[in-house]
Sequence to fold (81 residues):
Amino acid sequence: MLVIKVCVGSSCHLRGAYGVINKIKDLLAKKELEGKVKLEACFCQNNCHEAVNITVGDEVVSGVTPDNVVQRLAVYLQEIE
Fold:
């Protein structure tokens, strides 16, 4: 199972972490991947200056926004579809 963790610490929260979470939830539902991907909120991934940060598997992806999250996750989700 692929695990996606979205930081909801101060910097990420202020830059739209909850919008990112909502977009990911919508994307997983649309692609019917809820059983294959686990979405979690977490705190600080030690890259606050490039927020919003998400971890996909073991890789940190920085600079994620509600507007670009679908494109940023495309490669990772292709592998499990």
About this structure: The helical segments are 10-14, 17-30, 69-78. The mean pLDDT is 94. The CA atoms of residues 29 and 35 lie 10 Å apart. The chain has one domain: 2-78.
